[in-house]
Design a protein that fits this description.
The structure holds 2 protein chains of 2 kinds. By secondary structure, chain A is mostly helical. Chain A has helices at about 1-5, 20-40, 45-70, 85-105, 110-130, 135-140, 145-180, 180-195, 200-215, 230-255, 255-265, 270-305, 315-320, 325-350. Chain A is flat and about 75 Å long. Chain B has 2 domains: about 1-235, Rossmann fold, CATH 3.40.50; about 245-310, CBS-domain, CATH 3.10.580.10. Chain B is built from 14 helices and 13 strands. Chain B has helices at about 40-45, 70-75, 90-95, 100, 105-120, 125-130, 140-150, 170-185, 195-200, 220-225, 230-235, 240-250, 270-280, 300-310; strands at about 1-10, 15-25, 30-35, 55-60, 65, 75-80, 155-160, 190-195, 205-210, 215-220, 265, 285-290, 295-300. A 6-stranded mixed β-sheet of chain B has the order 6-7-8-3-9-10, with helices on both faces. In chain B, strands 2-1-4-5 form a 4-stranded antiparallel β-sheet, with helices on one face. The interface of A and B includes residues 267 and 276 of A. The structure holds adenosine-5'-triphosphate and magnesium ion (MG).
Chain lengths: ~350, ~300
């Protein structure tokens, strides 16, 4: 297990045993072993959780100490990266943690606290500089400004398109809910949009918006052009519409017919029925749509890098061109982290909006 | 007074309700009874305009229901839907207080009313107020549904099979509750059922529907003794007709002076109870007591004579 486990260094592999002196590797290895023995037997989720945390700590320990030990005496340009053994173990511990949490089923508040704790821990570790010798963070160090820029762009793309899609999609969904004829024409069109492959969609935006930018006076002045932010943004909005509209319609339709009939019978106006019965009962489903869009857009926004839309995709495609794996990771890891965090946050929100305490809906 | 005037509802050329005319007196219970699909629900729903009539009109105290906006009309009329139709995301208290909330009653008045109604339906307010519908039994849900319809003290209450999900014991208790509540508040109730027993027990008047038509509209005694059509007779059940009739007549109507052996019946008991007591204990007469004091007796002969009046 140990021998196959950890190789660190780009270029040539170094096994964990050859990393540094035993006083450094031993605590890490012990922690990983303890983590695995506690985590793998499935009886108690609490134990599994503790195992996962201990194991992760062990990995982190090896990573920080291994990196500095390896760089000691190596040239200025030497780079250290975790290799396949590290990623495998990381994956295993993450899975163990996810499984333990799923079994423990903590309430929304507990999950929120846990998420905040994990984020704080990650922040402290990154900020403390313990990992700054890793190659990926070296890449970051040389691109601090660009990274901040890309992060803002990425968020603007993902959240902005979500907000726009919500602003259009919620009213459209409510209208579709009211009128069957509108529903029957709108949803197929949106489904069709959803099936366009993302690369093709971004590609399609180039000539269309390019034409708009060139023909409509003033369009270029507000940034509408074939490449850049606008086409990426528009493509994301189009992708977002189906989940938003579809889930709004499904959510509003999920109110029991008898309850709606009773609402009508007691003299609620259509508006009161919407606000007091249909929306509260449909909110979890509607928010699930928002969650889908948010996670999907954070991922898709990477492709925006291809048409000059900015965001973390820029690093990914630069990295692909230069076959610099660490640069790709610099784009990919934050994207994944962002998507994970927003998924968890949205799940918490969905739970909080469940209309009945026992999750009856 | 509610006047239903030649009201008709047509779905795709088929008359679900076919030119029904009837007048319901204020402060009475009217039961609409009929087989499944006979148009009972449709008739009821045209009164609060959940369905618009194809022709004809309904007048409440002389005023056409068409004169008021539908949602304002409905706030004045209590409606207990077939199946309870409670809001799953609201507590029992919010469900019951729904109409008062629409009518902007002050909060403390609403919560006092909620507790009053829960108590009326033998549900402890402290235990039930904050529960959700999913945390109630089927029978409790139905009672909350009825309580919700009563909440704003409507003059008119429409109820569509409100006791459908109740077992016989709870059902007859709920019927008694409803009787008591109605007598206390003096409200007008129109209640739909397909159970003739319930109609006879509960109704001041019974309307029998068949295929969208009103085939008889009369007091329970008349329905039993003079069924207008073979269909009504079938609904009442030929075999049970005399017993049903006797169950409507209190012993006080045929009580006579004299003594009899054995345990006494209360004056409020029906002739059916008296007959059962005679047959079961092999007596030809039973004593009748009023507040523990024997006031006379009922004889088998008197019961027979009373039954023959209607035959
Ligand atoms: N919205 C509608 N569209 C078409 N036909 C309808 C509609 N509503 C009711 N009907 C028909 O009208 C007739 C009367 O229905 P209604 O619901 O009034 O019956 P009901 O007496 O209440 O029956 P049940 O005891 O089963 O509740 C039925 O034949 C039914 O199929
Ligand atoms: Mg019905």
């Amino acid at each position: 297990m140990t021998v196959a486990a950890n190789r660190i260094v780009a270029g040539e592999g170094v096994t964990v045993l050859a990393l540094a002196g035993a006083e450094v590797t031993l605590p890490g290895l012990v922690a990983i072993l303890v983590g695995l023995t506690l985590g793998l037997p499935g009886a108690w989720p609490q134990l599994r959780l503790v195992g996962a945390i201990v194991g992760l700590a062990g990995l982190l320990w090896l990573l920080t100490h291994g990196a500095s030990a390896l760089l000691d005496g190596a040239g200025d340009y030497a780079r250290v990266s975790p290799a396949v053994g590290f990623w495998c173990l990381l994956l295993i511990f993450m899975l163990l943690m996810a499984d333990a949490l799923a079994n423990l089923a903590p309430g929304p508040l507990a999950r929120g606290t846990l998420l905040a704790a994990v984020l704080a821990a990650a922040g402290i570790i990154l900020w403390s500089g313990a990992l700054s010798e890793l190659s990926i963070l070296q890449e970051y160090a040389s691109r601090k400004a660009a990274f901040a820029n890309a992060a803002l762009r990425h968020l603007a793309l993902a959240l902005g398109s979500l907000a726009t899609a919500a602003a259009v999609g919620f009213p459209l969904g409510i209208l579709c809910h009211r009128r069957a004829d509108l529903r029957e024409t709108t949803l197929p069109v949106l489904s069709f949009l959803q099936t366009i492959p993302s690369l093709a969609m971004f590609g399609l935006m180039i000539p269309i918006l390019g034409w708009v930018g060139n023909t409509l006076p003033g369009a270029q002045a507000i940034g509408i052009a074939g490449i850049g932010f606008a086409p990426a943004f528009l493509a994301l909005v189009l992708y977002s519409l189906l989940p938003v509209v579809g889930n709004t319609v499904a959510g509003l339709a999920s109110a029991p017919p008898a309850a709606l009939e009773a609402a009508r019978g007691m003299g609620m106006t259509p508006r009161q029925r919407l606000l007091r019965v249909e929306l509260p009962l449909g909110l979890p489903v509607i928010l699930t749509g928002v969650r889908i869009v948010l996670v999907q857009n954070i991922g898709l926004a990477v492709i925006a890098g291809l048409i000059g839309g900015g965001g973390f995709g820029t690093f990914v495609f630069q990295g692909l061109n230069q076959t610099a794996a660490d640069l790709i990771l610099l784009g990919a890891l934050p994207t994944v982290a962002l998507a994970l965090v927003s998924a968890i946050v949205m799940d918490i929100l969905v739970d909080l909006t469940r209309p009945t305490p026992k999750g009856g809906a | 007074m509610i006047e239903i005037d030649r009201i008709t509802k047509t779905y795709d050329g088929v008359h679900a309700v076919d030119s029904v005319t009837m007048t319901v007196e204020t402060g009475t219970i009217t039961i609409i009874v009929g087989t499944s699909g006979s148009g009972k629900t449709t008739l009821l729903r045209m009164i609060n305009r959940l369905e618009e009539p194809s022709s004809g009109e309904v007048r409440i105290n002389g005023e056409s229901t068409l004169a008021t906006k539908p949602h304002l009309l409905r706030r004045r009329i209590g409606y207990a839907i077939q199946g309870h139709g409670l809001f799953p995301h609201h507590s029992v208290a919010r469900n019951i207080g729904a109409v008062p909330e629409l009518l902007n009653w002050p909060k403390d008045k609403i919560s006092a009313r909620v507790d009053e109604l829960l108590t009326l339906f033998s549900m402890d307010p402290v235990a039930f107020r904050d529960r959700y519908p999913a945390e109630l039994s089927g029978g409790q849900q139905q009672r909350v549904g009825v309580a919700r319809a009563l909440a704003s003290r409507p003059d008119l209450l429409l109820m569509d099979e409100p006791f459908g999900a109740l077992d016989p014991i709870i059902r007859s208790r709920a019927q008694d509750d409803l009787r008591r509540i109605q007598q206390r508040l003096g409200s007008t109730i129109m209640l739909v059922t397909h159970d003739m027993d319930e109609a006879i027990r509960l109704g001041d008047r019974v309307a029998v529907m068949d295929g969208g038509k009103l085939v008889q509209y009369a007091t329970p005694a008349e329905i039993i003794s003079q069924p207008a059509t073979g269909f009504v007779a079938d609904m009442v059940g030929d075999v049970e007709r005399p017993l049903r009739l006797l169950s409507l007549i209190p012993v006080s109507e045929v009580v006579e002076d004299g003594a009899a052996e054995g345990g006494a019946l209360p004056a409020g008991a029906s002739l059916r109870d008296a007959l059962a007591a005679c047959l079961w204990t092999g007596r030809t007469a039973v004593p009748v007591a009023h507040d523990d004091a024997v006031v006379g007796r009922v004889t088998l002969d008197a019961i027979r004579a009373r039954a023959e009046l209607h035959a």
